[in-house]
Write a structure and sequence with these properties.
Layout lengths: L5 H9 L7 H12 L5 H17 L4 H11 L2 H14 L8 H10 L2 H4 L11 H16 L18 H15 L3 H28 L7 E6 L5 H14 L3 E5 L4 E6 L1 H31 L5 H24 L8 H18 L14 H13 L10
């Protein structure tokens, strides 16, 4: 008869038990802490849990995000280590997957203050490991995205856009940030037109793809509305997954790139404008900042959506309509195949009139250039 390993016994106590109380984790952690020889197997099991998450449709950024939301930074650092260890055992993936893996080793992306769990205290470390593994074990299946697409060399236009946005985020001067964002958005419009013309002349062999974009707290609803508006204006569809903190955007690759960049740019502008407006409110003796911010972002997202929709009606000429119509059908079909059942929701908690007014004004000031009409 085979001897049951310490890891198996710890998992039976802490991971596979029906109870969710912390006493079960303590029991499993005590078993692991008392047996240093179990460490290699424990680590190997963690790598297997990561591989299992990939088979259920999760991607590296999704896993790190949900771990950070449900647990702590120390768990997020540990799962990042496991993901990195799993890479040599994985099959080839696409460029988005590679970018997510690269972010795991970027000190700025992962947060310099996220300390690894102390391995000198074996019980504490085992507790962290079991808490993480229990979460990984219980991750539900997600929609499987096609991450094996051919890598496209980034155009000089996108390189310039990224550089402008990086400067906009780094500057401490709001006027300079708005000017940089305006220039970046002007280039985005030109980029999308160029891609549409190329598609009209030589249709792409690849169909619509999809990517997940994090929608981080606080005020997730308003941010999801903003992302939906940006996606719609750029021939994409966005479906928000509130429990897991992301939206899945479906569209053709050039448009997905633009959506990511434009959403980031508008979010930066919104945050800058909201901080200035909130400071003015507090200078006048106002204290209710949470409701102000929530109403501000809701109004900003709503008004930006209106402006983008109006711009979308006049941004192309008749000769581009057939290719855009065929792309829209393809995107809709792809979205419905990924998400056969969706629901709608209303933005909640919008109760601050001053916040709504200031958010609408900020949206009117935001640089959202119409695409130049083609001759």
């Amino acid at each position: 008869m085979e001897r049951t390993s310490t890891v198996d016994r710890a998992f039976e106590a802490a991971l596979y038990a029906r109870t969710d109380d912390h006493a079960a984790i303590d029991t499993g952690a005590s078993l692991l802490a008392a047996d240093p020889a179990a460490d290699p197997e424990l680590r190997r099991r963690g790598v297997e849990f990561v591989a299992s998450a990939w088979r259920r449709g999760w991607q590296p950024a999704d896993v790190v995000r949900i771990v950070g939301r449900e647990l702590d930074d120390v768990h997020a650092r540990l799962v990042s280590e496991l993901i990195t260890e799993q890479v040599p055992h994985d099959r080839p993936r696409g460029p988005r997957w590679a970018a997510q893996l690269a972010a795991l080793t970027d000190p700025e992306a992962r947060g310099a203050d996220a300390a690894a769990p102390s391995r000198t205290d074996r019980f504490t470390f085992a507790t962290v490991v079991l808490e993480l593994y229990r979460l990984l074990l219980r991750l539900p299946a997600l929609e499987v995205l096609d991450e094996a697409r051919r890598a496209r060399p980034e155009s000089r236009m996108l390189t310039r856009i990224r550089a402008l946005l990086a400067k906009a985020e780094a500057t401490g001067y709001p006027d300079e940030a708005e000017a940089l964002s305006a220039k970046a958005q002007e280039l985005m419009a030109r980029h999308s037109i160029d891609e549409a013309l190329l598609a009209a002349g030589a249709p792409a062999t690849e169909g619509p793809g999809a990517c997940r974009i994090g929608v981080d707290p606080p005020y997730e609803q308003a941010k999801a509305v903003l992302l939906d508006a940006v996606a719609a204006a750029n021939h994409c569809r966005a479906v928000w997954n509130e429990p897991f903190g992301f939206s899945t955007v479906v569209g053709f690759e050039p448009d997905l790139e633009v959506v990511e960049l434009l959403y980031t740019s508008l979010l930066v502008q919104a945050t800058t404008a909201m901080t200035k407006a909130e400071a003015a409110q507090r200078a006048g003796g106002r204290r209710r900042t949470k409701t102000f911010r929530q109403s501000f972002l809701a109004a900003y997202s709503h008004r930006i959506g209106t402006r983008l929709a109006a711009a979308a009606e006049t941004q192309v000429t008749d000769d581009l309509l057939p290719v855009l119509a065929s792309r829209e059908v393809a995107v809709t079909d792809r979205t419905e195949s990924l998400f056969p059942e969706t629901t709608t929701t209303r933005v909640r908690g919008v109760s601050d009139a001053a916040g709504w007014t200031e958010g609408a004004r900020a949206a009117d000031r935001a640089e959202v250039r119409s695409r130049h009409r083609l001759a």
